[in-house]
Specification:
This protein has about 280 residues and is mostly beta strands. It is built from two helices and 21 strands. It has helices at about 1-25, 45; strands spanning about 25-40, 50-55, 60-65, 70-75, 80-85, 90-100, 105-110, 110-115, 120-125, 130-135, 145, 150, 155, 160-175, 220, 225-230, 230-235, 240-245, 255-260, 265-270, 275-280. The strands form six sheets. The chain has a six-stranded antiparallel β-sheet, with no helix packed on it. The protein has a four-stranded antiparallel β-sheet with strand order 7-8-9-10, with no helix packed on it. Strands 16-17-18-19 form a four-stranded antiparallel β-sheet, with no helix packed on it. About 30% of the residues are buried.
Length: about 280
């Protein structure tokens, strides 16, 4: 009886050891997938690039702003075309102001206000062919959501300016005998999580050579996110409205920030009201 029990016990122990030993057997498999990797612009480049250049053709135009004899036309994420409209029948492309990450603009007096990714700029355009940066309010649009997607700033790497589709290959350990699996990855790579909303999808009066120096603001279009009313520049993003005091045009000062809902898209001043357009109402 004792002998039989010992044999059964030994068999049980042997089974456990054999089973445990099998779980330690590992094999490797290699698989390839695609991700969108961020492309960064360092802050020194971002904040040292504003300058007037020779006129260039409109390639990917965005918003348009009318001021005096001029049309200011945004080139999405690149800057602003300066077009002399003294003769509306024959407008003249006069210059291009290089502003990385520009989408929205507004003008008051001889000062152009423009976004540059996460920053807000005040630019002297008294001579549009020799524009000069007057002041920069840094990081007032953190993790901004504008018309064209997300912009994330990294303190060390800079600002994400585009996304690059890249092949990735990894080798991982799997249980021996398991079949290799196909992996699909669709998301940010390089420290950010979420969907791909920020990644690229694969698929006036009579003639003068200078901008008017009066203090009246110009006129933006129906998709404007910047507008000027009284002494304030109002800048909206997906959820908030930034109020910038421009009583001294060349010296904009952050005054307030208000949460105004979500899915905010446009702003339009009329009388003593601001009309804020969202995806589901006004």
């Amino acid at each position: 009886m004792k002998s039989r029990l010992s044999i059964l016990t030994l068999a049980a122990v042997s089974f456990v050891v054999l089973f445990t030993g099998c779980t330690k057997d590992k094999c490797s498999t290699t698989y390839t997938y695609q991700v969108y990797e961020p492309v960064y612009m360092d802050y020194a480049t971002l904040r040292g690039s504003v300058a007037s250049e020779a006129p260039r053709p409109l390639d990917n135009p965005g918003k348009i702003y009318i001021y005096g004899n001029y049309l200011f036309v945004n080139e999405v994420n690149e800057g602003v075309h300066v077009i002399d409209n003294s003769n509306p029948a024959a407008p003249v492309n006069k210059a291009f102001i290089n502003i990385p990450g520009n989408v929205d603009i507004a003008v008051k007096g001889s000062v152009l206000y423009a976004d540059s990714y996460v920053d807000l700029l005040a630019i002297d355009i008294s001579n549009p062919e020799a524009a000069a940066e007057l002041k920069r309010l840094e990081n007032i649009f953190p993790q901004r959501i504008w018309d064209i997607g997300y912009y994330y700033g990294d303190p060390e790497k800079g600002i994400i300016v585009s996304w690059e589709l890249t092949d990735k290959t990894e080798t991982v350990e799997v249980q021996c005998g398991e079949e290799a699996q196909t992996y699909y990855y669709w998301g940010y790579y390089g420290g950010f999580e979420g969907d791909l909303a920020g990644a690229p999808v694969v698929l006036g009066s009579s003639g003068s050579s200078s901008v008017n120096t009066n203090t009246a603001p110009g006129q933006g279009g129906s998709m404007a996110r910047f507008t000027i009313a009284s002494r304030y520049l109002y800048c909206i993003d997906n959820t908030d409205m930034n109020l910038i005091d421009i009583g001294e045009a060349a010296n904009p000062v952050i005054w307030n920030k208000l949460n105004i809902g979500f899915n905010i898209e446009t702003i339009f001043p009329y009388g003593d009201k601001l009309f804020i357009g969202s995806r589901n109402g006004m």
